[in-house]
Amino acid sequence: MLAKKQLTLKLFFPLLLLVFLSGCWDKIELEDIALVTAIGLDKGSIPGRVDVTLQIMNAQKAMISQGNATDKEPDHINITLRNTTPVLVKDQANAVITRRINISQVQAFLIGEELAREEDLYNVIAAMIRDPEMRRETPVIITKERAETFIDRNRPKFETLIYAFYRFKFNRWKETGDVPLSSVNDYLRAHADQAPYLFIYATTERKKTKAKGKGDDTTAGHMEIEGGDPVEMIGAALVKEGKMIGTLTGEETRFALLLAQNLRIATYYLAFPDPDDKPWMISTRLKNETPPTIEVDLKGKRPRITVTVPLYVEVLSIPSGVDYVADITLQKKLAQYLEQTMQRKFADLVEKAQHTWKADIFNWYRFVRSRFLTWQAYEAYDFPKRFPEADVSIRVQLQMVDFGKQMRPQDKLPPFKKENR
Q1: Distance of CA 410 to CAs 53, 246, 319, 370, 402, Å?
Q2: How far is the CA of 132 from the CAs of 52, 76, 217, in angstroms?
Q3: Are 368 and 281 in contact (CB under 8 A)?
Q4: Which of helix, strand or coil describes residue 159?
Q5: Closest Cα partner for 237 from 111, 55, 150, 386?
Q6: What is the Cα 318 distance to its own chain's centre?
Q7: ∠ CA(318), CA(320), CA(322), 5° rounding?
Q8: Which parts of the sequence belong to the Spore germination protein N-terminal domain (predicted)?
Q9: d(CA 247, CA 132)
Q10: CA distances from 30 to 65, 96, 164, 292, 377 (A)
Q11: What is the full DSSP assignment across 109-140?
């Protein structure tokens, strides 16, 4: 009896080991992998074809500490495949790359502006995600120059490994709101809704601009900044019906996201000319803790859209020396001035969206669509064509909440009244 038990145990344990070892049949060694960190897409010289640039990171450099043999190897290499299709690039790249191409860790899609303006981006991007390794949440960036040139020039000074650049940038985008958080999945969703979409806009072609004192009210490549990384990333590229039709400044992008209820930051900074001493600028912190309310009225010949934007303002700096802190009359004057300025900025952006781009960049179609019982009825209404003629009213409700820790007013303005909706 004891001998049978011993024999059973001797047979059982080898079989148990086979169960765990079976998970190693498809293992891949680290030195066999070439990780792609960025994919660039540009217009090819043959109609219907694209030039695809792969930025390939040395995986061993990311895992092995300094002082090893890998120190002599490059951190990454760039290769460009001409006149091809996105689906074929992995196999074609192995003609010059010895390791297995892996695109599961791609940090960003980069699309050259020339391609974005002339080709249907849906077809280009949809072709990329046919590969099961591709992640749909991958960020998408439209570059002013060719994506190939952007990738080659992008050599950040702080990040030793190039993949960290896109990861850190993505975290900063969330905090500033100066660029949209564009991704493959969100674009495909917008395309399915036949809606325009805002992509991140970036360039390495930094030029001196004649416009002075614009701050973030400008597009990539035109900021008054010297030094830093070669890449300048601010503003948005507007894509309508699959093609790029224009750009938004950083400030316009932030306002567009706010009016669309898509601004994912609670506070941001803006500077305004001092109403009592114009050459000086008043620095403020705006808080949009309460999202805008959007009302839609479709009873008339033209759709009527009313947007109410509640904003809390904290004044951080008054270089002019005007005593807004203690004088309640000056406080009221400042609050009225800031409210009118913000309302004018919103109105200018809506005017541009309706008559220059003729595109609902604020995603108000979602509120219009909710008024219809069926998809067919919504399509028959054809809101995208009605949007340029829509009657849009923007109302800013502004409350001065603070003058900073060192400048707290003795008497604050009463909070704005919340309307029943």
Answers
A1: 60, 47, 20, 46, 10
A2: 18, 24, 40
A3: no
A4: coil
A5: 111
A6: 32
A7: 80
A8: 26-198
A9: 32
A10: 14, 19, 19, 49, 55
A11: EEEEHHHHHHS-HHHHHHHHTTSTT--TT-BE
Query: Which sign does the torsion angle of CA 361, 366, 372, 374 carry?
Result: positive
Q: Domains of the chain: which residue ranges?
A: 31-258, 266-421
Name the pTM for this structure.
Answer: 0.83
Token pair 């030094």 is found at 227
Q: Does residue 397 sit in helix, strand or coil?
A: strand
Instruction: Please state, in angstroms and rounded to a whole number, the distance separating the CA atoms of residues 14 and 73.
Output: 42
Count helices and strands (H / E) in the chain.
13, 14
How far apart are the C-alpha atoms of 116 and 233, rounded to whole Å? Answer: 17
How far apart are the C-alpha atoms of 180 and 202, rounded to whole Å? 12
CA distance 332 to 324: 9
Distance CA 389, CA 298 (A): 12
Find the helix packing angle between 250-259 and 328-352, rounded to 10°. Answer: 90
Q: Which of 162-176, 366-380, 394-408 has the lowest mean pLDDT?
A: 394-408
User: In degrees rounded to 5, what are phi and psi of residue 232?
Assistant: -115, 120
Tens-place pLDDT, residues 288-314 = 878 899 999 998 889 999 999 988 888
Q: Which H or E run includes 163?
A: helix 163-176
The string of pLDDT tens digits covering residues 345-365 is 999 999 999 999 999 999 999
**Residue keyed to tokens 């790249």:** 93
**Exposure string for 57-67, b = 16+ CB within 10 A, e = fewer:** bbbebbebeee
> Is the distance from CB of 79 to CB of 99 less than 8 angstroms?
no
Q: Which residues pair with 143 in a beta bridge?
A: 112, 202
266-421 CATH, one of 3.30.300.210, 3.40.1010.20, 3.40.80.10, 3.40.50.720: 3.30.300.210
The pair of structure tokens assigned to 251 is 């400030």
Q: How far is CA 199 from the centre of its chain?
A: 6
| CA-based nearest residue to 341, from 409, 294, 296, 286 | 286
Crossing angle of helices 184-192/121-128, nearest 10°?
A: 130
Closest CA to 353 of 272, 262, 236, 200: 236
Burial of 414 (0-12, 13-18, 19+ CB in 10 A): exposed
